[in-house]
Structures are given as structure tokens and as C-alpha cells.
Amino acid sequence: MTDEVLRTENLARAFGGLQAVAGVSLSLYAGKVTALVGPNGAGKTTTFNLITGNLRADSGAAQIRGKPIMGLKPWQVARLGVARSFQDLRLFTHMTVRENVLAATETASWFWQPGGGAARRAREDRAARALEATGLAALAHARAVDLAYAERKFLSMARILAAEADIWLLDEPASGLDLASRLRFGELLRGATARGVAICLIEHNLDVVTELSDRIAFLDQGKVLAEGDPQTILRDPALAAIYFGDRPQEAA
Amino acid sequence: MLFLQLLLQGIQTGALYALTAAGFALIFGATRIFHFAHGTSFTLAGYAFLFCWNGGLPGWIGTLAGIAVAMLFGLAMERLVYRPIQRHEGSFFTVFVAAFGVAVVVQNLVGMVAGRGFASVDTRLSLATEVLPDVFLAPIFWIAIAVAVVLFAALSAFLTRTHAGVALRALAQNPDLLRAYGLSSNRLSMLAFAVGSAMAAPAAILTAMTTGLNEAIGHHVMLISMAATIVGGVGSLRGAALAGLMLGVAESVALQFVDTQWAEAVSFLVLFAFIIFRPSGFFGVAQTR
Amino acid sequence: MIAYAANLATIVAIFGILAATLNFVVGFAGIFSVAHAVFFGLGAYAGAQVALHIVPDALLACVVAAVVAGGLSLCLALPALRVRGEYFVAASLGLQMMATTLFSEAKAFTGGIGGLVAIPRPTLFGMEVSVLPLALVALALILFATALLQRGAFGRTLQALRDAESAAEALGKNVAAAKTLAMLFACAGAGIAGALFALHLSFVNVESFTMDQSVLVMAMVIIGGTGTLWGPVIGAIILLSLPAGLAFVPFIPATEVGAVQQIIYGLAMTLLMIFRPAGLVGDLSKGRATA
Question: What are the sequence ranges of the domains in chain C?
Fold first, then answer.
């Protein structure tokens, strides 16, 4: 396939007795959308947390363009070009929409950002473009906490856009969106992949998965059961049985 | 024998700390409200007892008055301060500041009404006798231990045997569950405040009989309760009680090595160390939000 | 009368610095420190020692005070990196209580309970000056710096980590560094206030650096309005004018003025939290920290 930008090898993590992730090997490619699919509790979000350094892996490795990232802190991983969204969004609730997005462009933790006025204007441009692309420009001065549901989801995407990362880890970004919003969301993703962004998407709605993804990794009980193009995976009756919970020993 | 003397004194202080801290922990566990005015319940109960005593009333009336005042104060806080705040935004800090304001007001009112400085009740119970060579104990020591033991037994019976008690414990773990079972979390929250605040009264009365009270004692009590709750592990009554006992003993035993001024600092050193190295406390799960 | 007004203005400026810097961590970073008086005290002792033993140069005293208080701000940054909310308040209270004891006992540095006395009048470039202009300039500079930081990227970073720490980290923000820096700035500012305080009174002791003082500064921030620029200064003016105002109320006995004052601000804190949690100046629509 094309250029692999992120790769995990046998990532594993247990919580108490529960093996949440049991050896996930996964690759993300520039310009491709990989969907992580699987029943609840399959370890999808945990896999994200292991990659981003929010959780420490018990074993396994991960690298970004060959650079090992295990043991890095979340902000260090972010600075290697990884942006993520959260299932519960985690917006900066008491800041305005524009401030939310501007904050995503400012990574230096020092009293001021490097680069002076020119760099500041460039960041403001980036923020403005992200707001434009997500249709939030008119709401720039509203507080995040006052937004409607779909607008919040797009604000979370706007932050990621503005961060100019080239690896996106999106945790159920399209859940609960109406059709029109979903179409716009699809455009956002296609725009990004056209620029070479590698996207990993956790998604439950299989229509969305078929519509947006180039590859599917099917996770169950902390393992990748199958990997491949959407048609093959989604037509596999064994996987469908697992996904729709027909299995007698279905765990939570 | 100094060490034994200090140890016994520490156990006495610690038993009182344990009672107060358990009340604080009960309230925090059940309602998630960091009741910073808990020390004020203690102050009010102590002074209520003091007034009754100085008015020539028998001790048991003073005791009941103390318990009633503490309970009423707790309930008033829940109704008039915490509930309205939680109805709007109710961030933890808003709650903290409001409670602190009340504590400041009450402290100064008590100072104006009852006079500033130490006040205590003289009883024969606090006269120490030599029980071992160089070890002095007053009857109050045994009373403090007995009161603590009896109250903890009663509390644990209440929490495990009665319907309301079980619900109270459940509230700490899963408020939604309660709603599903049709229990009113409002009423349980009031119950928690009533019981938790009442727990401060016996300790206040015993303190009035031993070291005495002053109008600012609430601060100290609140800080110790908070320290014990965190060191013990939030959500664990047993933890809070043990930590309270431990802090009392530590403060007292430390006197063998340092001057009295440092006694209180010892408690806060312990608290500080726990927060940095083990914020979940002895028995708690991590609560770092 | 003029001397009285000048004295009040100096004290207001000094507490304005304290309140503004405390507001910086409370209102923006959501770090609720109840130990600000500790750093005020460190600055005061450091400034006093410089004036007593080296030269009574105001600038040097302020710089040394800022360095000492800022350096020791790590004592508070450490728990701030570990815990939030109630836990951090508990840690800061613990620090405050320990520091009070330390201040009364470390006689070599603080003069113990008696404090440090006969601190010489301050000079600036060799000329003797009064503290009022220095305090006003310091307040102006600190407000200016605070405004710059609050409105710029750093303020956004602090607010972001206040609202959603994990999301801020996921966007590449080094949360630990930002919090430590914010504490450093706030505590260094408190240190400067302390040095000016020591030079102004020419006497300091532990009573000015207790928990009561921390609560008073906290009350200034709360009453004025957290997260605003001018709120804390206005809070400082109100609370410091209170005793003067009460002195003119005839039916309050002089011995009770202190208590009445505390009752008023305690009541104000409680009522504000119930009815107007954003403070007097605060704009409710801007919202507050939710720890």
C-alpha cells in the first residue's frame, strides 16, 4: 500500500483482570481512512489511548514514521502530528468557539508563542479557515457550552483541522449527526485525505463506515480479527455475527 | 513513660478527630459536597453545651442541645446554601467559598456573643490520676474511647442494617441507581447532613471538657476532618476514622521530638505527603479529577 | 488625613497585586490556592532581609522577593500537577498551615513571632522614596502583564487546561509546564507585594501571612469577580475600605470592628456564591471555572 505513517505492534493493556487490548497491530496510511469497527468493549478507545500516551501499554510498540512513541506523554505525541477527538468531545466549554480553535493552533506552553506577529496572523488564518470549513464561522463568538449538539461535534473537528496534524484519531465523530451534517463531515474527511492526512475512525454506524473508509480493522475482545477493504469485511458473516451480538458468550 | 503518656493522649484526641472526620467523610461520600463548614457544626455544638452547662442545666440536656444545634446547622447549610448553589452552576469552588463565608461569619458571631479566647467546662471527669508510674489518665479518656466505639458501632449498624443507611452508601457509588429504585436523593442528602453533623457534637462536647473551645476551633476541626478524609481515602468511612485516630496520635507523639507549635504542622505534613504521593489515600480509589 | 489616605492607597495597591496574581491562577488556570499569603510572606521576609542586611534598595528587594517566592512556588505547583479541585485546596491549606508554623519558628529568617523590626526606609537609585509610588507602579506593571498574558495565547492555554485538561494535552499543550509557569508568575507577583509590604510597614511578622490573610485575598478575588482584570483590584478596594468605613459607624464598639468586618465579608462571600457566583465585576455569560 501507500506510505505507512503510524504503526502499532502487539499493543496490549489489561485493567485488573480484564484484557482490554490484547495485542493490536495496526497501520495507518497517508491519505487513507481506516475504520476501527467492533462491538462495545472491543478495545477501540483504549487503543487510541495507548497510541496517544493517555494510557501506558503493558507491552507492544508503536511508531510514527519509524520513530518509537511508547512512553511519550500525550502532548509529545500530539506534537509529532497526532490529533484526536474524544467521544465526549471535551471542548473548552467556557471559551468561545474561536478561542477553542485558536487554542488548538498554539502549542508552546511558554508565556508567549514563538514567531511574533507574522506567526500569530498565520495562526489566526488557520483558525478562521478551520471555522469556515466546519461551518462555524458565524458562531465564532458563541461559547462552546452554548452550542447545539452537531455544532459541538464540528467544533471538535475544527480544533483538529486547525491543529494541522497529519494523523487523525477520531472517536465516533459522526455519531448522532443528521444526514446533512454527515455529508459535510464526509467532505471534511475527504478534504483531509486529499492533503495526505492519515485518519483512523471509530464508528458504529456501518453505513458511515462504508461511505467513508478505505480500510476496516475489525476489533473484538482486544484483538484485530480481520483487516481489509470494507466490502470484504462487512460481508463476512462470522464478523457480522460478532458485531451484532449473536454470540452466546457476548461480554459487555 | 512520656511516650506512653503522649500515646494515650493521642488516642484520646484521635478518637475525637475520628468522630468528626467520619461525619465529614459521610457527608462527602454521600453528597459529593466538600462541607467546609463542618468545623462550624463542631463549634456550635460545643458552645451550645457550654451555655447549657453554665446555665446550670444537667449535662444530658447540654448534650442533646449540642447534637440538635449541630444537626440543625448541617441541615440549614444543605437547604439554604448548598442546594441553591447546586441548582445553578455549582462548581466545587463556589461551594467551598460559600461554606467558608459561613464559617467566617459564625466564628465571629460566636466570638462576639461568647467572648474570645478559650472557654471550657470544669468537671471532675477531666481530673487526671496516676494510673501507672508517671502516666496520668482522666476518666474522660475512657469516656472518649467508649463514645467513639459506641458511635462507630451504631454508625456501621445504621449503614449496613437499615434501609436508609444502605441507600446512603449506595448514593456514594451510583446516584442513578437510586433514582431507578425510586429513592429521593434529596432526602438522603439531608439525612447525610443530619447524621454527619451530629457526629461532630460528641467530639465538641468532650473537647469542651478537656482542652476547651475557642471561637476559631472550627477551622482546626475542619482541616483535620478534611485531612483525615483524604488520607483515609475519600468514600471510606473506616479510612477517615482510622486516619483521624492516626493524626491525633501522630500530633501527640510528635511532641516527644518537637515543640508543641509543630504538632499541628505534623498533620498537614502527612496530608501534603499523601496528596502528592498517594492522592487516593489508604483505602480509596484514585479521585484526582 | 493625607498620611492616612496615602497609607490606605499603598495597602490597596499591595493587596491589589496580591489579588490580581491570585486571580491569575484561580480565574484562568482553575487552580484554587488558599496559600497565597505564604508567598506574600516569603517575599516580605526576603525583601526585609535584603533591606536589613544588604541595602534598602527597593528594586533589589523586589527582585529577590520575586525570586524567592517564585522559586518556592514549586511547593504548590507540585500538588497542582497531581490533583485538582478539593484535593488541591486541601493541599494548599496544608501548605499554608505548615508555612505559618515555619514562619513563627524559623527565627533566623523571619524573626519568629516577634518578626523583623526596624526595616530601613526604602531607596531607589540611592534616593529615599516612599512606597506608595513604587506600589502603584508595581501594580500597574503587574496588571499590564496579567492583561497581556490573560488575553493572549498563555491565558487561552490556561483556560483550556482548566476546562478540559486531556483535550489540551491532546492538542500538544504541555500542561505541567503551563501550570508551573502560571504558579511561578502568580507567586513571584505575591513576593513583590510582600517586599513592598515589608518596606512600607518597616515591620513584618507572621500574623500578616496566616490563613486568614489568604482567605482575605481570596475574598477580594471572589467578591470582585474571578477571571476579570479589574475585579480583584475592586475587591481589594472594597474590603480594605471596610474597616475605615466601619470606624465611622457609631453603634459598633471599637473592639468589635474587626469581627463585624469579617462577618460582612464572610456574608458577602456566601451570598455572592448563592446569587451571583461570577462576582461583582464578573460577567455571568463568560462563565466560571468548573473544577
Answer: 2-208
